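Good day; I would like, with your permission, to put a structural problem before you. What I wish to show you is a protein chain and, alongside it, a tokenised description of its three-dimensional fold. I would ask you to consider whether the tokens describe a fold that such a sequence might reasonably adopt. You will find the record immediately after this paragraph:
***
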Amino acid sequence: MHHPRSVVYADRWADVRGRCIFGNEANRVYLNQGDYFVDVAEQVGLTRTGTSRGVALADFDNDGDLDVLITHMTAPPSLYRNDSQAAAWLGLDLVGNSRSCNRDALGTKVTLLPAHGGHAQHREVYANNGLAAQGDRRLLFGLGTDTASTARLSIRWCGRGEPQTVELDTGHYHRIQQP
């Protein structure tokens, strides 16, 4: 049963059947500048207006960069392929053993250990990672201009227990099953 206040003045609501109350809006892409954000949608090619409802980031073409899928209320989805400058990367598809960690490895924390005095990168497998959509569950590490052919990672399955350390080749995805 609804709380009486949740439908107060329902007789005064606008009739929006067949229409959307947020029609023909511009998509936004915000770039973090440290202390503030800047909308760069136009610079990255997201200029279509409409009634967008969800966004998922995933590497649809398995080339090491995230592509963007945007769902719309009254139109087919839009897929934007990321063809940015090639850079070093490493991807993981983690599989839990179904005993001490769930099969999807949700909650697993991975640290890419720094090479050459660099900074560590941290990723976690999430069940929800998009806005009204589900992005790629795989983990992706961007390595920039690092030319090392391997990377060392620490995997803490489901966020607990002793970490597993692995060294993997860069430039492609690895499927790792929990021991």
The chain has a mean pLDDT of 86. Residues 56 and 135 are 4 Å apart (CA to CA). The first strand starts at residue 25 and ends at 26. The chain is about 0% helix and 35% strand.
